[in-house]
Design goal:
Oligomer: heterodimer
Largest interface: A-B, 26 and 32 residues
Order of helices and strands of chain A: HHHHHHHHHHH
CATH class of one domain in chain B: Alpha Beta
Distance between the termini of chain B: 36 Å
Largest sheet of chain A: none
Helix content of chain A: over 70%
Structural class of chain A: mainly alpha
Helix content of chain B: 25-40%
CATH architecture of the largest domain in chain A: Orthogonal Bundle
Number of helices of chain B: 10
Distance between the termini of chain A: 36 Å
CATH superfamily of the largest domain in chain A: MetI-like
CATH architecture of one domain in chain B: 3-Layer(aba) Sandwich
CATH topology of one domain in chain B: Rossmann fold
Strand content of chain A: under 5%
Bound molecules: adenosine-5'-diphosphate, magnesium ion
Number of helices of chain A: 11
């Protein structure tokens, strides 16, 4: 009876209002995004065609100018994730599957609190605490393992190197990555955890059989979110590094590549003319880099969809 | 490969709550024993104490004794992980690992002990285990598909194959058919009949016909009210329990008067 009348009256008013506002909000987002894209592209064009002399420094053209920045961005974000990924997975596993309930809750709060610390504070911490603290270790590494290209000298006297900046970045992305990992680990079905335990799995074997494979897509999402933040983060790198426009992979020297975001923050106040367009264009490149990496990640997650557990 | 289970004066607690009280029973090798009784009387709890799976719940513990072929299951030097390799378990809802193929599911338990099993041996084990779960013919052409691509009844037989693959002495089944359709249920019941040749089987069931069809011995449990511990009321040959039980409550339960 009731369904008949509802159907005859068409969609209910509440549904219509909700559908309308959802559609408006969706359209609005698209319009804003399109406007930003149009602005970025329009402002970038002059830089793309600029010749020697117009661009900052001695760059012959825009690509020569932006390449070291792209490299520095990806390199520092990569290093940061190299540190942050195993750490956040480990902490999240400890919270979700090892720690007693009380401790797990307390740790969860601490991690969430860490997420609320402004990035300027992390930058200061990097300069004042971390850099002096790690400098002796850097000296030791250069003295003893300097034959490995990554650890080649001369060692930075201040400890403010790309590695330090990446560690600061890692600490900054750690909370969000840990929080996501913890959530997906907690959602691992009890059913499958018990299946593993009943086969005689130890707790760690159970995690490897029933938790980690299930959490794969979630872990990749966490890495992507962390990467997004590491790629776009300005303050940590801008404060810790006194950068150069170079491409090198030395972790411990005082000549370090800059990142796109930090370069924009440092250069924008003094930029004029085509330099402004060059900075905006570098922002566009950052956007494309982030987009590209995200698409690769989606592809990786999508490849084994049938085995994801989504159809269990 | 099958073993005798002796339970003596067993109490099971969830923290302070006494869930099962004072159970004593002996389960002979190569028999099927059914646990029946109303919901909440502790059938699953007791079953899980037979492979120490109850310890997964924080605060769960037992008092009393469980012997498997004379070895104390709860002796201080016994590792629960090793117990579970000897006493396999099949759950109420089929739970093949969705992230593994059918083949990998069968091998999941074996891989824990023997990571580097030669491929030929693995193939052989997969075929034998699936065959003994009456599943081989249905899946032999799609061993690399995800376990979750099978029907519910097939998934449950895959879980049985997975449990059998580690060559346990005892198989515990907690309402293995309650999520399945009647045809799949019959397939599992036939399978239990066959597995009995090799294993000691304990099955919890809510289905009276099932208990009388598949089991040799039946244990009836009951509770006197919510929050009271479950106790073993009567334990006897299945034929006796269903035709002339010695306790009135058993007769009322098996004839469908309550529960
Ligand atoms: N994980 C648990 N924590 C606390 N109490 C539990 C838990 N599992 C079961 N119980 C309690 O133990 C009693 C027996 O439960 P259970 O063994 O599941 O009964 P059955 O399988 O016969 O329906 C019930 O009172 C139930 O509430
Ligand atoms: Mg139960």
């Amino acid at each position: 009876m009731t369904t008949d009348t509802a159907r005859r009256g068409g969609i209910r008013l509440g549904d219509r209002v909700f559908a309308g506002s959802a559609a408006t909000a969706g359209a609005l987002i698209l319009i804003v995004l399109a406007a930003v894209a149009v602005f970025l592209i329009a402002q970038s064009l002059p830089a793309l065609g600029a010749g020697p002399g117009e661009l900052p420094g001695t760059a012959q053209n825009f690509w020569v100018y932006v390449w070291p920045l792209v490299f520095g961005t990806i390199w520092s974000a990569f290093l940061a994730l190299l540190v942050a990924t195993p750490l956040s997975i480990g902490i999240a596993l400890f919270i979700s599957h090892y720690a007693p309930r009380r401790l797990a809750q307390a740790l969860g709060y601490v991690i969430d609190l860490l997420a609320a610390v402004p990035s300027v504070v992390f930058g200061l911490w990097g300069i004042v605490v971390l850099a002096p603290f790690v400098q002796p270790m850097y000296s030791w590494l250069v003295a003893n393992l300097g034959w490995i290209p990554l650890f080649a000298g001369p060692v930075s006297g201040t400890g403010r190197t790309v590695l330090t900046a990446s560690v600061v970045l890692a600490v900054m992305v750690l909370p969000i990555m840990t929080a996501i990992c913890r959530e997906v680990f907690l959602q691992a079905p009890r059913l499958h955890e018990e299946a593993a335990l009943a086969l005689g799995a130890t707790r760690w074997e159970m995690i490897r059989m029933a938790v980690l494979p299930f959490a794969r897509a979630g872990i990749v999402s966490a890495i992507m979110l962390g990467l997004g933040r590491a790629l776009g983060e300005t303050m940590a790198v801008a404060m810790v590094l006194s950068p150069a426009l170079v491409v090198n992979m030395f972790l411990l020297t005082s000549i370090n590549p800059n990142t796109i975001a930090a370069n924009i923050a440092l250069q924008f106040p003094e930029a004029t003319g085509v330099s402004v367009n060059a900075l905006i264009a570098s922002g566009l490149v950052l956007f494309l880099v982030t987009l590209g990496i995200n698409m690769i990640a989606r592809y990786i997650v999508g490849r084994r969809r049938a085995f994801s557990g989504a159809n269990a | 490969m099958s073993k005798r289970i002796e339970v003596t004066d067993l109490d099971v607690y969830y923290s302070r709550f006494l869930a099962v009280q004072n159970v004593s029973l002996t389960i002979e090798p190569r028999t099927v024993t059914a646990f029946i009784g109303p919901s909440g009387c502790g059938k699953s709890t007791l079953l899980r104490t037979l492979n120490r799976m109850h310890e997964v719940v924080p605060g769960a513990r037992v008092e009393g004794r469980v012997l498997i072929d004379g070895d104390d299951l709860y002796a201080p030097d016994v590792d629960p992980v090793l117990v579970r390799r000897q006493v396999g378990m099949v759950f109420q809802r089929p739970n093949p690992f969705p992230t593994m193929s059918i083949r990998e599911n069968v091998l999941a338990g074996v891989r824990l002990n023997n990571r580097r099993m030669p491929r030929a041996d693995a193939d052989d084990l997969v075929e034998r285990s699936l065959a003994s779960a009456n599943l081989w013919n249905e899946v032999k052409d799609r061993l690399n598909l995800p376990g979750s691509s099978l029907s519910g009844g097939q998934q449950q037989r895959l879980c049985i194959a997975r449990a059998v693959a580690v060559a346990p002495d005892v198989l515990l089944m907690d309402e293995p058919c309650s999520a399945l359709d009647p045809i799949s249920t019959l397939a599992i019941e036939d399978l239990i009949e066959e597995l009995k040749q090799q294993y000691t089987i304990v099955i919890v069931t809510h289905n009276m016909q099932q208990a009388s069809r598949v089991s040799d011995r039946t244990a009836f449990f009951n509770i006197s009210g919510a929050g009271t511990p479950g106790t073993l009321i009567e334990y006897d040959d299945t034929a006796t329990i269903f035709s002339r039980p010695s306790v009135q409550a058993t007769e009322d339960y098996v004839s469908g008067k309550f529960g």
